[in-house]
Amino acid sequence: MQQILYLIRKEFKQIFRTREMVAIIFGMPLIQLVILGFTITNEVKNVHLIIGDRDNSRISREIVRAFEHTDRFNIIKYETDIARITENIQDWKAQMAIIIPHNFGRDIERYKIPEIQLLIDGLDGNTAGVALGYAQNIIQQTAKAIQIPEPILAGLAGQTLVELEDRMWYNLNLDNAQYMIPGIVVVLLTIISMMLSAMSLVKEKEIGTLEQLMVSPLKRHQLLFGKIIPFLILTFIELTIVMTFARIIFSININGSLILLGFLSFLYLFTTLGLGVFISAITGTQQEAMFISWFFLVFMLLMSGFFIPIENMPALLQHITYLNPMRYILIIIRDIIQKGTVLSFLLKEVVPMTIYGVLIFILAVINFHKRAA
Amino acid sequence: MNKRIIAIARKEFLHIIHDIRSLVIIFVMPVIMLVLFGYALNLEIKNIDLAVFDYSKTPLSRKLINQFDANKYFTVSYQNGSPKSIDSLFLSKRARAAIIIDQNFAKKFEHSQQTPIQLVIDASDPNAASFIKIYCNGVINDFNETHNANLHLPFEVKQRIWYNPDMRSAYFFVPGLIALILIMISALLTSITITREKEMGTMEQILVSPVRPNEIIIGKVLPYILLAFLDGLMILLLGVLIFDVPFQGSYLLLIFLSLIFLVTALSFGLMISTLVSTQQVAMMLALSATLLPTVMLSGFIFPLNSMPVFLQYLSYLVPAKYYITIIRGVMLKGNTLWQLIMPALFLLILSAVMLRNALHRFNLNLEK
After folding, report:
1. Which residue range(s) make up the domain with B201?
2. Which residue of A76, A171, A291, A311 is the best one to mutate when testing the B interface, meaning the one whose CB has the most B CBs within 10 A?
3. Sign of dihedral through CA atoms A270, A275, A278, A283?
4. B98 shares a domain with B77
């Protein structure tokens, strides 16, 4: 035990000796939290819009005004010439244009059905789809609100409508940060524990100090634990700091049990630390270790449901996600923080995650022993 | 070309070849990312489990429920208990939304203008929640239209979607991915390769040799330019062949502007390597300073316009932001050099500043 403590002390000294490293371990996650927390959003705002109102009647002005009063769109220009509009979309100045034809108001009153055109740059399909939805909605709402001449409204008199009253549970205001921040916490947890542990062991190999450790009276398992425990502690400190800042900046509250959250994160760390040790056992240089852990990381990140919802993937890819430990912890942490889910509802995730953790850890230990021998 | 540069480049090249696993990853990873982004990145939610509490049990309510069931987005499950069980349905993820139809639904529908029904959505994923709401409203609108003759607007709204009429995500991601790969390889790898020489002490050996500092840098960087170019070309070909991403503009223009971007990315990598002393720090810094901003602050996935203003200003410092505009513009819109002059100029300015900084610091380190 005493020997492990020495090794842990050595490891901490080594980490804290490089000032840059300390800055990165503690500073970077916070910067990342802030940047990611604000950027990862599927909300669409400030779409650059050109308004082409060729009619300039009461009804068309009403529609234009509705577009002026929303932060979804940012009107950059009023322009009726179609060639100019095309040019502006082509050279990235505008993303969307709305064109109201001549005699729009008069045609409505004459029961002709005039046509409003929405032109959009569809390169970013997601944004385009959402922006079109907003625009359609704004136009429809305005059309209902403006006073359209009596006879046209007459048909609406005898109507009977079903209305939806919706209630959003767990996230009343549909605040995106509430959903993304727990995910970011998982990502940071994974990066710190996996990369640092992978690099630290390989570094000793590369510099040649691993052999010195090997010939010391330390047993192999002591060496292993001495290498893992510091990163376990660091990761937990990191977790606490990040969660505190998440609470201060984004007002994320943990609705579930803090102890459960800590315990399940601890279980997950077996997987990532195990992967780190495994990577460092099979590689010879830090560059190699970095590349392989980075490969694992990207794969885990993309296949976890962090920003690509798993239900939307093709069936084959969905099956592959079951191999990904991050998939489980992501659901667990999101559910505990947002919904306050209790353990009994999370068994579907906890059981496979624990099995992976144990398996990967055993594999790592065996590999480490073999390579070290 | 200078013999000494070639010698350094050859040495660096041997380093790369020697580490075959990293080399495989450099070429396999972009392919995996391409496939995942091309096929899987679809934020539209499908297969929504919808729990229905039908207390009305009339032909009319069943008709409404059938319309939900017929919709491709919903899988309906009938529930008998009280609405209190919604909580456990949500917590165990057996449903993502629930509809509660009142006992006197049918009666109200006949006699009043508006008949409410309740929709409860698990909004822990806000994006999914807003999609679910939109889909439900769609179903309800259809139902209302079949029961009311004159619900149409007095005009039509026609949409025209340019450049990507089917709104395919591959069109969007293939160019972005090329930018990501280029910066990753040129900035990340160069920053690490120089710090490695420092950490191992071999930098001093090279420095006491007759090679000049500028030649060292050029020689070290050349193989990575080649590697990045090959990788970028591979993604471009795969994107065009597998995902049918069109190429509207001029190949020459793209190559010319890509070279400018490569210089920017390499200057960035050089700057990082002069700032730090160990590979571990270089890697973490490069990862946080290149990968993250390139994915998040360049418009690669998330639109810049939707972000808070201070992040939009920050994005002016991200080289990939300009290159993504350039490559999307050339490939998908057929932009000319004149239309892309602003992003190209910004790239040049960024590289000049960073390169000057890097060389300055590099020389300082030498004098020490």
Report:
1. 3-41+166-367
2. A291
3. negative
4. yes
Q: What is the dihedral of CA B284, B286, B291, B294, to 10 degrees?
A: 140
In a domain, A212, yes or no: yes
In tens, the pLDDT along B294-323 reads 888 888 878 888 888 888 898 898 899 999
Residues 173-202 of A with CB under 8 A from B: 174-176, 178-179, 191, 195-196, 199-200
Question: Which residues are within 8 A (CB) of B73 and not within 5 positions of it... i.e. 6 or more apart?
Answer: B45, B46, B47, B48, B135
Same domain, B186 and B222: yes
* Same domain for A85 and A180: no
Q: How many domains does chain B have?
A: 2
The tally of domains found in chain A comes to 2
Say if the Cβ atoms of B91 and A175 lie within 8 Å.
no
Asked, for residue B140, whether it belongs to a domain, the answer is yes
Q: Does residue A164 belong to the interface with chain B, where contact is any CB pair within 8 Å?
A: yes
Which ipTM was obtained for this model?
0.74
Tell me, yes or no, whether A70 lies in a domain: yes
Tokens of A361: 């850890």
Task: Please check whether residues B122 and B205 belong to one and the same domain.
Answer: no
Copy the structure tokens of residue A142: 């305005």
Task: Calculate the alpha carbon distances from A333 to A80, A263, B176 in Å.
Answer: 52, 11, 30
| Strand-pair partners of B157 | A116
Whether residues A42 and B127 touch (CB distance < 8 A) is answered with yes
- In chain B, which residues have their Cβ closer than 8 Å to the Cβ of A188? none
Shared domain check, A34 and A54: no
> pTM of the entire structure?
0.78
Q: State pLDDT tens for residues A192-236.
A: 888 888 888 888 888 788 778 778 777 777 888 888 888 899 899
Contact B169, B38 (CB under 8 A): yes
